[in-house]
């Protein structure tokens, strides 16, 4: 129970902080927020071994704080991207950011294992200290080389208004916007499927097929890497389609979401045909994560399509729904397989996951848009008038 609480503590803090993080990103700017996050996370990493030696409650508190601070990253990133990315570059920029996260996770998982198994350099506490030092170096590099917007770079000429002014966020307009809800529903459905495969399917391999721990470790290290690669490729193709005007922005978003969802759902067919042959499950596992990379060209950049000004806040608000899946999935899985850990119960889980993914896709196609919304344009027009008056 303590281990589950420790692992779940992060998601509680992470989920709660999304919307406040979005507000802070709009008010303070993405660079400022991420600077704070890097420094804070370095301190938390350095304090974690000490907290573990004092009391598990203190370590859980740090894990919650960890989630709270990291909850500000997504809105800050999208706030920065909305200022730097042109219309035909959004998919690629988003995919690069998420690919960096994925590749970093793969490298961290591998190196952490090596460090923890090496008692000559101090064992598992040393991993926290090493990452803390890397964080300190990253903070220096980030502060030195990153700018909030092109307007801060001498070599660029920018006509964009000052976006660091304090302003009121049109909360009512955003939370009653159909395109925003379309993103929220699609983010929930795609993330539900992603987290189900990431969190629960390795357990399925172990319980149903007796797959050894080493093989499960290999399988769990693949998803993020595969999704990152397909994300980069699909994003490049999507931006090319938009730049060449083969399809509109909205139709391009729809195309790649449909491709991702349909491919992942088609992957369920081998399970039915073979009766849960272990090879079929492994194929589904790989196909699903490859298809999930298409989100980088569909749902993820859509927040910037509908608003430049408040992209960070919209990304944060919709990420809240996505983050809830990390809490919901273990509960749902526990309820279904607690009394009967059987293929029939797992079939229900797989079917539920596929159904949620399909429903999210349909909702996004019905209600999504790719034009700047009125509530975003009104603020931009107001800033332009103020700029003209001040000249």
Structure characterization notes:
The longest helix is centred in the middle third of the chain and has 32 residues, at 178-209. The radius of gyration is 22 Å and the shape is globular. By secondary structure, the protein is mainly alpha-helical. It is built from 17 helices and no strands. The N and C termini lie far apart (63 Å). Helix 9 (178-209) packs antiparallel against helix 13, helix 10 runs parallel beside helix 13 and helix 11 (249-266) packs antiparallel against helix 16. It has helices at residues 2-16, 18-28, 30-54, 56-70, 73-84, 90-117, 124-145, 171-175, 178-209, 213-243, 249-266, 269-274, 278-292, 302-306, 311-337, 343-367, 374-390.
Percent helix, as a range, is over 70%
- Taking Cα atoms only, what radius of gyration do you get, to the nearest Å? 22 Å
Average the pLDDT over all residues and give the rounded result: 83
Strand-pairing-aware structural class: mainly alpha
> How many individual helices?
17
Topology pattern, helix = H, strand = E: HHHHHHHHHHHHHHHHH
Distance from N terminus to C terminus (CA atoms, Å) equals 63 Å
Q: Count the strands? A: 0
- In what range is the share of β-strand residues? under 5%
Largest sheet, if any?
none
What global shape is seen? globular
Low-confidence stretches: 156-165, 383-391
